[in-house]
């Protein structure tokens, strides 16, 4: 009687995470875009004569966008999908290496 073994998982290059420099560049661009929108909101709130509800909306954008930008810039690798491979099951009949005695 043959024992059928589970085929080993093959890892693909697409499972790899992006490089650190690519991740940093993505976060920097995202931060700069959000801070640019904040600057526009600040200018619109001060310079442009608009009714108060719109002015309050611009002020809220100028106040809360820095917080959102910093939180987004500190999230490292959040857009990377989780790996698709399965962790292999341990062989229960084998004693793990860290549990073996010196004389065995």
Q: What report would you give on this structure?
A:
Keywords: Membrane, Transmembrane, Transmembrane helix. The chain crosses the membrane at residues 31-50, 56-73. With 104 residues, the chain is an all-alpha fold. It has a domain at 22-75. The protein is built from two helices and no strands. Helix 1 (20-46) packs antiparallel against helix 2 (52-74). The longest helix is centred in the N-terminal third of the chain and has 27 residues, at 20-46.
The coarse silhouette is: rod-shaped
Low-confidence stretches: none
Helical proportion? 40-55%
Secondary-structure class: mainly alpha
How far apart lie the N and C ends?
Answer: 31 Å
Instruction: Give the DSSP E fraction (strand runs of 2 or more residues).
Output: under 5%
SSE succession: HH
Mean pLDDT: 78
The number of helical segments is 2
Radius of gyration: 26 Å
Strand tally: 0
Biggest sheet features: none
Organism: Nonomuraea roseoviolacea subsp. carminata
Protein name: DUF3099 domain-containing protein
Transmembrane segments: 31-50, 56-73
Region (Disordered): 80-104
